[in-house]
Structures are given as structure tokens and as C-alpha cells.
TrEMBL record:
One of its GO terms (cellular component) is cytosol. It catalyses: shikimate + NADP(+) = 3-dehydroshikimate + NADPH + H(+). SUPFAM superfamilies: Aminoacid dehydrogenase-like, N-terminal domain (SSF53223), NAD(P)-binding Rossmann-fold domains (SSF51735). InterPro entries: Aminoacid_DH-like_N_sf, NAD(P)-bd_dom_sf, Shikimate_DH, Shikimate_DH-bd_N, Shikimate_DH_fam. Homodimer. This is Shikimate dehydrogenase (NADP(+)). Belongs to the shikimate dehydrogenase family. Pfam families: Shikimate_dh_N (PF08501).
Length: 261
């Protein structure tokens, strides 16, 4: 039996096991998928090996470690600077990123997007920024401090102190603000200015109406949480676990049934 897992901190909220185990069952695969709370990201690969995993997903805040510590890294993961999927193959651990294509699939219902603002500058922000740039969308980043902007040299980056709000089609919360609290990903004064001239709001958090989504909807924006992004990246990840030999549509149908259980 193959064993897969998702690493993160916090991780108790993750429904990845539900999605993957449903698909594993429906497709008749001999495997199981669980979740693991990992406090120290530097121990990621050690835990992977100790648990004799065949593959794993990695979420906040360990995606940079997933890329750094892997043996072989995909071109996309290297360009993004983080990985969310690890696969054991030929006794080596391969790092991939399925967040970028998963995000693009999730925002398709919004239609044409020309400009976007990402709140946060972590691993998920890297994947989203890469995806938007590859889709020819102008993207800026806004973060509390400038410390993490070293990985975003090709983008316009702002801290709260030097940011002047302007119209954006899409506002994305890539942070964990609102996951286990009632915090906003940026000061309410800045968000009020941004939302007054924007069309769409996307939160990578799923399973609850976050303060970010609640506020954006009150300003009349069309909103979407991260459920579909989770779904699409999970479909791609499971296929990677099996060396891209599975039927993507069958995985999607199966995982969709488990998404809102």
C-alpha cells in the first residue's frame, strides 16, 4: 500500500485527505492519504522518509522548504520558488508546484482579468504571481513589510507605508489571515480603498467566509474562496503521485463529490 500525506501548520482544517482518499477509493488504488502537523519545515524530508511516504502535499508555511530540500525540482517549481507536491521516484524526491495551474483554473469563472493585486508574499503568493504573469496579467504585491520581496524582483511590490491604492480587477488574499481568526490580510483603510475600485476577490482559504471575503462582498465584489484551487491542484498532485498515468477527469469527478461533504 502506498502512503501519502499533507504537511502543514496548522493542518487540522485540511480536507485534502478527504479529496484524495475519495479518488483513491473510486479509482481502485491501493493507497491511503493522511495529514501531518509539522512545526519545523527543515524536518520535512526527514519526516517524509521516516514515514515511508510515496508522495506528499505541502501547505503553509513549508512550501519553500519543500523546494529547497528536494533532490530534483521541476522547472515550474524553481521559477515559482516553492513546491506544494513531493513525489518519491527511483529513491529520489521530486518537487513540483500544482498551485499555479490550480489557481488559474479556479479563477476562470471571473472572465477576463487584466490587473491583479496579491496580498502577502509567501509561497502561495509566489505561485499565484507566476501564474498571473504567465497569463499576461499585470500583477502587484502588497505585504506588511519589505523583507520578503527579495523573491519578487520582477514584480511591483509595496509595503503598507508606500502603497497608493489604484483600481485592480482582482484582489487575492494569499495569507493565512482569517483562517483561524477574524483578522484581515491588510489594514481596513487600505482594503476599503482597494475594494472601492475592484471587481473580484479571491481568498486561498476555503471552507469559511473569511473577514476578507465578507468585507469584499459588502463592497459589491464577486467573491470566490480557495475550494476550487484546492480541488484542481489536488487533481494534478494525485496524478503526479502516479507518474501522470491517471485520468484527470475521473479524479476531478471523484474529488468534486468529496469537496463539500
Amino acid at each position: 500500500m502506498r502512503v501519502f500525506a499533507v504537511f502543514g501548520n496548522p493542518i487540522s482544517h485540511s480536507i485534502s485527505p478527504r479529496l484524495h482518499n475519495k479518488a483513491i477509493c473510486d479509482l481502485g488504488l491501493n493507497a491511503v492519504y493522511t495529514r501531518i502537523c509539522l512545526e519545523n519545515g527543515s524536518e520535512l524530508i526527514d519526516r517524509f522518509k521516516i514515514l515511508k511516504l510515496s508522495g506528499a502535499n505541502v501547505t503553509l508555511p513549508h512550501k519553500a522548504y519543500a523546494l529547497e530540500l528536494a533532490d530534483i525540482k521541476s522547472e515550474m517549481a524553481c521559477k515559482i520558488g516553492s513546491a506544494n507536491t513531493l513525489v518519491l521516484k527511483d529513491n529520489k524526491i521530486y518537487a513540483h508546484n500544482t498551485d499555479a495551474p490550480g489557481f488559474l483554473s479556479a479563477i476562470l469563472p471571473f472572465g477576463k482579468i487584466k490587473t491583479a493585486l496579491i496580498l502577502g508574499a509567501g509561497g502561495t503568493a509566489k505561485a499565484i504571481a507566476y501564474a498571473l504573469r504567465e497569463s499576461k496579467i499585470d500583477v502587484d504585491l502588497l505585504n506588511r513589510s519589505k523583507d520578503r520581496f527579495v523573491d519578487f524582483a520582477e514584480f511591483e511590490c509595496f509595503s503598507y507605508e508606500n502603497f497608493t491604492p489604484k483600481p485592480y480587477d482582482l484582489i487575492i488574499n494569499s495569507t493565512s489571515a482569517g483562517l483561524n481568526d477574524e483578522n484581515l490580510p491588510a489594514p481596513i483603510e487600505i482594503l476599503s480603498e482597494i475594494f472601492s475600485h475592484s471587481k473580484f476577490a479571491f481568498d486561498v482559504i476555503y471552507g469559511r467566509v473569511t473577514p476578507f471575503l465578507d468585507m469584499s462582498s459588502r463592497f459589491g465584489l464577486t467573491t470566490k474562496d480557495g475550494a476550487d484551487m484546492l480541488l484542481y491542484q489536488a487533481v494534478l498532485a494525485l496524478n503526479l503521485f502516479y507518474d501522470n498515468t491517471l485520468d484527470l477527469e475521473k479524479i476531478k469527478i471523484s474529488m468534486s463529490k468529496a469537496l463539500y461533504l
